[in-house]
Amino acid sequence: MEIKGQTAYITGGASGLGEATARTLAAAGATVGVLDMNEALAAKVAGELGGASAACDVTDAASHEAAMASLRDAIGPARIFIACAGIATGAKLVSRDGSATPLEKLTGAIRVNLIGTINSMRLAAADMAAMDPLEDNERGAIVTTASIAAFEGQIGQGDYSASKGGVAASTITYARELAREGIRVNCISPGLMDTPMMDGLPDEVRQSLVETTVFPKRLGHADEYAALAKHIAENRYINGTVIRLDGALRMAPR
Ligand SMILES: NC(=O)c1ccc[n+]([C@@H]2O[C@H](COP(=O)([O-])OP(=O)(O)OC[C@H]3O[C@@H](n4cnc5c(N)ncnc54)[C@H](O)[C@@H]3O)[C@@H](O)[C@H]2O)c1
Known about the structure:
Blueprint: E1 7-11, H1 16-27, E2 31-36, H2 39-49, E3 52-55, H3 61-75, E4 80-83, H4 108-129, E5 140-145, H5 149-152, H6 158-178, E6 183-190, H7 203-212, H8 222-234, E7 242-245
Parallel strand pairs: 1-2, 1-4, 2-3, 4-5, 5-6, 6-7
Helix pairs in contact: 1-8, 3-4, 4-6
Bound molecules: nicotinamide-adenine-dinucleotide (NAD).
The site of nicotinamide-adenine-dinucleotide (NAD) has 31 residues, from helix 1 and helix 4.
């Protein structure tokens, strides 16, 4: 669909990939709604772009529903929905002392990245389904965010890999399910992107990951994610697919 004149909501839009996407879509003429747990940053980004923001915890049904209602009132329902909210976690099944790791340390990413994304998708899809169809009967486009850890997770990333594997695997299922409503569902699977999420990585780890990247030998830019998300929203024939954005990186076990 043509971006200009559409309304786009972005979860995790206060930072990193989501923020870059909010800026790119706004520059292309969309009115943006920024959904994020970080209320102050979300308001700052939305304010700079002439959009609206709402505090939202994607893991919480009531919080997400209230945030969607607030954005609907402010800027109307979204035809474009980009799900970028997410967290990175790390823990092994068995702790150093030989004891089983507490379950809650092994499920945080599944809660935010997978259940949160499903929560976003159900609300986005319900709004889109109620809108008038455009050309080809298209009503909306949803873009979710997995990670190459869905396919080559490193040791200690089981929770994160499982969360992203779930997002990637359900893409075709939801695309099939929502086809009747004219809603496309696609997923971007990034490699290593230069965002605040990567700030915690020690320099030597960052450097070794860059070395493993085939070409170009650097971290990805958030703008490169945003450009792909925009293209997916524009290109009606892209549906039900997971697109890697990773400079041909295949991560080693550790
Ligand atoms: N940066 C990378 O290298 C990379 C690689 C692969 C996948 N990803 C994925 O891309 C997405 C965006 O990551 P990023 O690098 O931009 O990170 P980021 O930390 O810069 O941004 C993530 C945003 O999500 C928000 N958020 C976290 N939990 C939330 C919740 N429960 N409800 C609402 N908002 C919440 C945060 O407040 C933050 O603004 C994530 O899903 C991440 O797993 C990132």
